[in-house]
Amino acid sequence: MNCRLAFFLIVVGFAAWFAGPAQADSFELNDKSTLSGQALYPDKNGIIIKGEDGKLSDRVPWTNFTQSALKKLSGLAAAKPFVEPLLEPDDEPSKPPAPEIVLKPVPRLPRPPPGAGGGAMFASPLSVALFFILYLANIYAGYEVSIFRNQPPGLVCGVAAVAPVVGPIIFLSLPTRIPATAEEIAEQQAAQEELVHAGEAGAETVGAHAETHAAAAPVAANAPRHPPATVYQRGQTTFNRRFFETKLSGFLRVVPSEAEKDMLVQIRSARGQHAGQRIIRVMPNELSLQVHKGGASSEVIIPYAEIQEVQIRHKDS
Questions:
Q1: β-bridge mates for residue 272, sequence order
Q2: Which residues sit opposite 34 in a β-bridge?
Q3: Do residues 73 and 83 make contact, with C-beta atoms less than 8 angstroms apart?
Q4: DSSP letters for 245-298
Q5: Which domains are assigned to the chain?
Q6: Within 13 A of 222's CA, how many CA atoms are on the CB side?
Q7: What is the pLDDT of residues 74-122, one digit of tens each?
Q8: The pTM is what?
Q9: Phi-psi region at 38: left, alpha or beta (left = phi > 0; alpha = psi -120 to 50)
Q10: What are phi and psi of 115, to 5 degrees?
């Protein structure tokens, strides 16, 4: 019994002695150095190398080993779970070939011939529609110019239709046409009538005029005198919000002062003539004037661009 046990121990010892040198190997590191010996005690932090002289090294991290050393260590069953995630694949999977791009033909508009000239503008319906829209916009611009310059709309629009762009520019360059008022027309007619009758009346007319002037002299002397009217005309004055807030500030009050209580603001614009004693409000582009007709008051909105003349006069003048 003792002989058999001794024989078994001798065999195990020889096997361990032959197995130890068989497990020793050299492992390359990333810093170009080499560790030779037996790999022992692997864990997640690394492995210990037992040298040929029996000394144990410090635990070497897995990331310090090269790929060839990791492949050797993957042969250890205890080290394989920690080494496999760090191993790089030998051959990358082949990528599928890129699909070929095939250009499909698309419908395109035909190009005008090189020698077509200006007529090529009307080769497509889109260009014809754009030209028609621009033509209508040109006529509308002529209408706006006619309002701004107080010209006949039919005349300006007709010229714009015949001479696009140029026609509205010509009328825009002209000064604003200010029509004669009813008082001016009446004075002109009266002056013409006096000239006609002056040559026919003779001495009797001269005497009648002398008597009339003599009789009217006391009446004119007793007639009340009103201050002269103050007139602001376009071209000499810029009509805007600042003008009415500075020059006509007294007419913006709800209760007029002594200087404005008997005065009227008469505004002549492209759309008519309006007179009132109070300006209700002044906006950036227009004003509101309070006018009285037949015992009732109403509000009239007048744009600054259409104002041709502003007159401040006495209500009885």
A1: 269
A2: 28
A3: yes
A4: HHHTGGGGSSS--TTTTTEEEEEEETTEEEEESEEEEE-SSEEEEEEEETTEEE
A5: 2-86 (2.30.30.100), 126-173 (no CATH), 228-317 (2.30.30)
A6: 4
A7: 888 888 888 888 887 765 566 778 888 888 898 887 776 776 666 667 7
A8: 0.34
A9: beta
A10: -95, 25
